[in-house]
Amino acid sequence: MSIMPMDYGRPSRPLYSSLLRNWGLTLLVFGLFYFVYSGTAWVWFRPVVHKPLINKYAAEYRFDPLWVMAIIKVESGFAPWAHSHRGALGLMQLLPSTARELAPEIGLNPFHDQDLTNPEINIHLGVYYLSKLQSLFPNDDIAVLAAWNAGPGVTQQWLRGKPALDFEDILYAETRHFVRQVDRTYGWLKIIQGWKHLFGIAHGRG
What is the rounded CA–CA span in Å between residue 177 and residue 138? Predict the structure, then answer.
């Protein structure tokens, strides 16, 4: 009596294709769920009325507009009237005291605290401030974001002469969370931008 050897090779093509299909569908559903849950879908697929201003000042100060957009998304969710418990105002959540120092440097005189609810003034001041922080921490986006949230003085202490700041170097939990949120949002926005180019969606339509 002969016993046929069992075949432990690759699964049959129909089964193999079915597994791939189901796995791909699972990943797609999970990705879409996270995409919507994270709030990034809201940013891109609704009309972003401030996008021209973001592009304008990002270009002037040589930033990736998607990076500026990620900061605004995390700071205010694109609400010009947003305000924090610390008194920060507007799209980029600038403190009035900081804005009062920056305003004369960009020729904004006179300046009133409520001007921070004006999207153009807020974005201009915010991106200009980012450029000043970048000059303090060149080629170190993590340090720039940490300084934006916690202040340049404490960020310099965290660096301790290191060439660049790591997430683990950020000792304030709130600041570390903020930097990670911006980093994740920026990553999603770059992916969406790639999808838009891939599928030929017209630039600037949302």
Answer: 22
Which two tokens mark 131? 């450029």
71 Cβ contact partners less than 8 Å away, ≥ 6 residues apart: 92, 126, 130, 145, 148, 182
The confidence band for 200, taking pLDDT boundaries of 50, 70 and 90, is low
Q: Percent of the chain scored above 70 by pLDDT? A: 71
DSSP per-residue string spanning 112-145? -GGGGGSHHHHHHHHHHHHHHHHHHSTT-HHHHH
- Neighbouring C-beta atoms of residue 42, cutoff 10 Å: 14
* pTM for the structure as a whole: 0.76
Share of residues in the chain with pLDDT > 90 (%): 67
Catalytic residue among 60, 75, 120, 168: 75
What pLDDT does residue 2 have? Answer: 46
Q: Exposed, middle or buried: residue 173 (CB in 10 Å: 0-12, 13-18, 19+)? A: exposed
Both tokens assigned to 4: 């046929």
Report DSSP state, residue 4: P
- What mean pLDDT comes out for the span 40-60? 77
60 tagged catalytic: no
Angle at 118 (CA atoms; ends 116, 120), nearest 5 degrees: 105
